[in-house]
Write the structure tokens for this entry.
Amino acid sequence: MASAADQLASNFSFANFSKATELKKRLWFTLGALIVFRLVSFVPLPGIDPVALEQLFNQTRGGALDFINMFSGGALHRMSITALNIMPYITASIVVQLMTSLSPTLGALKKEGESGRKKLNQYTRYGTVFLTAIQGYGIAVGLEGWGAAQGMGAVIDPGMFFRITTVITLIGGTMFLVWLGEQITSRGIGNGISLIIMAGIVAALPSALANLFEQGRTGAISTILILVIVLGALAVIAFICFMERAQRRILIQYPKRQVGNRMFQGDSSHLPLKLNTAGVIAPIFASSLLLMPLTIAQFSGQGGAQPDWLIAVTTSLQHGAPLYMGLYAAGIIFFSFFYTAVVFNPEETAENLKKHGGFIPGIRPGQRTADYLDYVLTRITVIGAAYLVLICLLPEFLISELAVPFYFGGTSLLIVVNVTMDTVTQIQSHLLAHQYEGLIKKAKLRGGRR
């Protein structure tokens, strides 16, 4: 008779979607939430002249604003109420997580479980409001002066009232996206924050492809270069899929044990350590920290004469500039190690193995096991960080040299592929759970008939 696992494997297919009612509800909720996100991104800020704004944005094509606009799903270009997207929340979460490592008080909150997590989330929301207010005020001031020299102001009625309403509206838009992302995480499929960022990037891919082919048609870009770009993007996607599935398996041995008069043989399993434990978090965190000051500097310097220091900042932090690339690489490496330390604790893992009688062959249980896990994790994280730097910076450098849209860069492809893989994995987990529930019900019915 076939085992339950064999029966589960034979029945596992996407045809089971029709029977997985809970999964369908979660998928529909996720899709509906992402549609709401896209609709909200078209709601403009009050007091903005859309025609003048479009003309001003066309004058800055290919600059830092285009890169910031990519993460907002075009909301910055339209200057909508979600122009800052979810980036202030990500920056605030970075600060809170860093403070939990530096502050004993916040570190104690982190260990309190659910109540401590809620308190830290509350602090993160406060930080999100504060950062959004700073960025929103910078955007409001910049919009008032943007285009004034050319006689086409983007703001219909400049003044303090416009600045206050802009700040309040941007805070409301950002906090709405934070709430929407949390709802997707709890009631939908996948990580809500990551899905919102991915949805913004994916929404602009069709227009980016159309623009690329239009440049090829007009002769601005050669056909060979277009083929190289497309094949390069496919190669990057394949490489990302390979590296994201790569893992270092550590053999875990369990000794023989006696239960009553029966002797059970020792079992063995593997502890999988992902090569890129941080996933897509490291590039998102690094981008968020760079985009926050760049947004303020870019908009604050739009009106009239700019101070020398502001010109130096915006020039040095332009997409593709050496300083930008260096800071981006340093941020990716730092957050790769930092987030890996957050999600994987070698001491806790070693203690759990010791409690259940598991051990690594040749390594003593306890502190020696923790040291060995930390040693292995550090080595593979070096490879994972190097992979992230390579995949994010090399295509970005080539794109800045070839003047290709940002959407074909390593960062955007990494986010899209990684979030898609994570979402598909969660869908498969729900299908697997549904199959197990079906097998358990069948087993109970057979038992009842007997």
User: Anything to note?
Assistant: Strands lie at 247-253, 257-259, 262-264, 268-274. Residues 251 and 270 are 5 Å apart (CA to CA).
